[in-house]
Amino acid sequence: MSIQQSMVMISKADYPLIPEEAFLYFPQPQEIKVGDGKSGLRRIFEGQIEFDKYEMQQLQDFEQYVKQKQAKLIEWWDNAKKLRFLYANQFKYEKTLKTMETHQEWRSQALPPKFTDEVKQFLETGAFYVHGRDNRFRPVLVINVKRLNFKNIKIQLILDSMTYFFEFILNNMMLPGQIENWVVILDLGNIGLSSLPINGLKQIMGYLSSNYRSRMFATYVVNTPSSIFIPYKIIKGFLEEATIKKISFYNNGNPKPLFTHCHKSQIESTYNGDSKPVNQNYWPPKVISNQYQLIEENLHSIFQSKDEYNKQYKSGLLKRNVTLKEYIEGSEENNQVNPESINLISFTKKKNEIFSTRELQDVQTPQRNYEHKKNFDIQRSLNIVSDIQNSGNQSQNNSNIQNMHKSVQYKPPKSSLAQFGKEDLSKNQIEEFDEDNDEKQSNQNKMGWVNQDQSHVTSNMADNVSVAHETYIEKVGDEPSINLVIVKQHKMNSEIFRQ
C-alpha cells in the first residue's frame, strides 16, 4: 500500500535526517503550483494536495486514452504519479503513455536497488552526495563531474549507484505533500571541452529526467568551461523545456541565486557557503546545519503550530501525509482517528523493501545553532520544537542515524556569448557573475535572460526566488516563454540579498 493510500506515522528517532520542523511546514499555494493549464508548473503532488479542475479533467481524459490504447499500467500509478508524467510531457497523451511504459519497465528491472560493495564504494567517492537543505527543506544534491570517471567505471554501475542514492533520498529525506523536490549543484570542475564527458552526462541527465519526474526545483551548473555553448547543447537536446528553465550556468563556484532560498550554513565553502569543504565521508548523508530559514523570513508564515498540526491530524486532513509521532498528542485515545489505521512501521517496511542489509558508517549531526533561535524563537512563538539542545543530544542523534542505516535493509567570458545563435539565445538561461564586475552589476541585472544586443548577462530565476520576495512576471516581446523577473525587496530589518 502506497503512502498516499494509508496514514503513516513515524518517529523522529527512526528518521533523523528529516528535521522536526519540516513536519510543521506546509507549502503555500505559490510554492505548490505556479500558472494554470498546460503552462502551469506544479511542484507538490502528494499528501494533502488537491488537484484543480483542469488537472482532474486531464487525468480523466488520459485514463480514457489509456483504455483506448489498451495499455497495461501497474497499480503503482496513482493520480499524483500520473500527473507528474503528464506535466513533464506537456499533457501530450501519446508521449506521456510512452514514457510511463518505459518507466514502469525500468522499475521492474532496477527496483529494489541493490547495495553492493561496488555501489557502496562508488557512493564513497563523492561523485554525488547530499549536502544540506534549502529554506523549504529541499535536499541539496552535489554532482561532481570530475569524479565521474566514465573511462574506468561502467556507466551501469554509475546508474545503479544513482538509483540507490535517489531512492534513499525519497524514502528517508522527503515528506509527501511537504518536501517533494531537490536542488542540484552540478559541478563541471572547469573541465576543458575536449575532456567533458558529454555522452556520460547525457545518460545521467536523461536518466534523472526519465525516472524522477517533477523532482527538480533548480539546478545550478557551476565551474563551467570557458564557453557554455557545449554544456547548453548537451542539456537542450534531451530535456523538456520546463526542465531547462530550471537550469542556470555559472563560470565559477558561486551560484548566488542559490542563497535566495538556501541558508549559507547548508552549503560548503567550495560553493560560497559557510560549511567546511567536504573531502571525505560523502556517504551516508548527514545533517549539515540546523539553520534552514533565511534571516529575513517570517517563520509565522512558514510553520504551523503543533496545536494546528494536531487539529489537522484529528480532522483527517493529514490522512495521506507522513506524520510525526512526537507531534501527535494523545492520538491513540482520540476517537476521531482509528488507531488501527495508523501504521507505525510502514515507513520502515517500505525501506526494507527497497534497500538491502548493510551497516554503514556513523555520521555526525551538529548541535542546533541558537544564534538563529535567538532571532526567531521557534520554540516559544510557534510551539514547534521542544528543547533539543539537552545533554547527550548529539550522541543520541549520532546513534539514531547509525541505527537507521543499520536497519536499512538493503564563467563564461562575455565574448563567448557571440557563439550562440539567435534561437539559442532566446531560450538559454544562464548566469554570469564575473568577479571583476560583481560590484558593477546591480541587483536588477543579476536575474533575467541573455540578450544578444546587450553586453550584460542575467538569468531568469523565477523558479528559484524566495517566498520572502514579491515576484512580478512580465511578458517580453512575442516570445511567451521568456519572462522578465523583477524582484521587489520587502521592507525588512536586513537586506534580502545577503553577501
Description:
With 499 residues, the chain is an alpha/beta fold. The chain folds into two domains: 26-109, Orthogonal Bundle (Helicase, Ruva Protein, domain 3); 111-297 and 349-370 and 404-499, Phosphatidylinositol Transfer Protein Sec14p, CATH 3.40.525.10. Helices cover 29% and strands 12% of the residues. The strands form four sheets. A five-stranded mixed β-sheet has the order 4-5-6-7-8, with helices on one face. It has a three-stranded parallel β-sheet with strand order 9-1-10, with no helix packed on it. A two-stranded antiparallel ribbon has the order 2-3. The longest helix has 18 residues, at 93-110. It is globular and about 55 Å long.
**CATH third-tier fold name of the largest domain:** Phosphatidylinositol Transfer Protein Sec14p
The parts where pLDDT drops under 50 for at least 5 residues are: 1-6, 330-395, 402-499
Average pLDDT figure: 72
By CATH, the architecture of the largest domain is named 3-Layer(aba) Sandwich
Query: Sheet bearing the most strands, described?
Result: 5 strands, mixed
Distance between the termini: 47 Å
So what's the CATH class of the largest domain?
Alpha Beta
Secondary-structure element order, N to C:
EHEEHHHHEEHEHEHHEHEEHHHHHEE
What share of residues are in beta strands?
Answer: 5-15%
Q: What is the multimeric organization of the chains shown? A: single chain
Number of helices: 15
Structural class, from secondary structure content? alpha/beta
Overall geometry comes to globular
Radius of gyration: 22 Å
* CATH homologous superfamily designation of the largest domain: CRAL-TRIO lipid binding domain
Work out the count of structural domains. Answer: 2
Number of strands: 12
Helical content stands at: 25-40%
Strand order of the largest sheet: 4-5-6-7-8
Pfam families: CRAL_TRIO
Protein name: CRAL TRIO domain protein
Domain CRAL-TRIO: 116-279
